[in-house]
């Protein structure tokens, strides 16, 4: 009998221990681990909850609705719609039950749903009543992009693969960012998941990486637009090179090899820096790179943002590349090619727009951004983006000297960027014709205007163009940049420059 009582006590103790363990586990799951479970991507309930939450609108800086949520009678309650279709997809991104989100939809997800917002205590009875009765927590965001400018970029790239980035050099605000091809994000926001999956597979199969916006997620050889950086390195590291006379050549013999660096189309050029820059002389700049040395060129590239990811408020941006200085010790030909933006140098259109903007803004590169301000469901502004510097790329003195050289590219009789001339507006620019090694070229143009009071900086790339004289950055990409600058300045005329007081 005593043995049986002992067994009963042991069973009771075991049950009690199991009960305590269960209690501890339930409390752990519900209290301590609840956040991790809630955010786990395998948690289907959390995904459905997120997808059924009302999201605020996205609106362009000129008042066009780019994304909105429409009530539905199905389980998801709201359908995300994009009235402008493919025009702004690479900025807004998409919001999909099957494939998640991208673009500003992803970056500002918590802002749009109102789960992340500044809280202000009401200061009146009406404010308290509104706080207690209002169930709509969604917030809308106004972006910095302009429908008019984005439309021009789309029109200019019609039928051509390429990217255009336009931004305000003084604030970093993205004014337009468009790549062709693009796609209609409504395909992925549909509540018909079979259609969504079929659309996504079709997009994946398209050449050119339509799901990865070319403007800030794809890289190309920047070609001669990189000479902006190389020229800045001259003034920052070896100013004496600015007055050195380089021989007139059609091909530059390269050290450590019997190979030659040729000018595009076999042209001959030489002279001092103004002549080299105006006609984009590859042989001259190849020798400049050798004269500067790997460390100086690498340091300057770093100062302008190469090997760093620009801090744009959009997801999955990629960094532009410049080889480390020590790679040139046994590869001096690579140094010469790097000075003209080739070899292993690669850049996104966003990076080259920031390079031009940095020169236009006196040497300071502002952090690029697409957010302007946030409004709550009562249309009251609750937060505004504050512009901030990203990098001090160079000095104001160097920026001023490079600006003068960039003006000559457009204004000089033999300048390679004459196609970007605008009556009454000084356009500072650099052309680029990067040879890809496949009998094709990537046509570039980077510019800002007006030169003395910049309001807009633009970078344009048209990759994989035929390798012929009529297909160059100055003939293909420059007119696109011109159209962007003209359109922006027509509706946003620059403020007059205040002259410095006389000493």
Tags for this entry?
503 residues, alpha+beta, six-stranded mixed sheet, five-stranded antiparallel sheet, 19 helices, 39% helix, 18% strand, globular
Give a written overview of the molecule.
The chain has 503 residues and is α+β, with helices and mostly antiparallel strands. 39% of the residues lie in helices and 18% in strands. It has helices at residues 2-32, 34-39, 44-52, 89-92, 103-107, 109-113, 125-133, 147-156, 186-189, 193-205, 214-217, 227-237, 273-279, 282-292, 294-303, 332-339, 349-360, 396-411, 473-491; strands at residues 58-59, 65-71, 78-81, 95-96, 100-101, 140-143, 162-167, 174-180, 246-249, 251-253, 260-262, 269-271, 364-366, 371-375, 381-384, 389-392, 428-435, 440-449, 456-466. The strands form six sheets. Strands 3-2-1-6-14-15 form a six-stranded mixed β-sheet, with no helix packed on it. β17 (428-435) and β18 form a beta hairpin. The protein starts with a helix and ends in a 12-residue tail after the last helix. Residues 118-123 and 126-133 have low confidence and may be disordered.
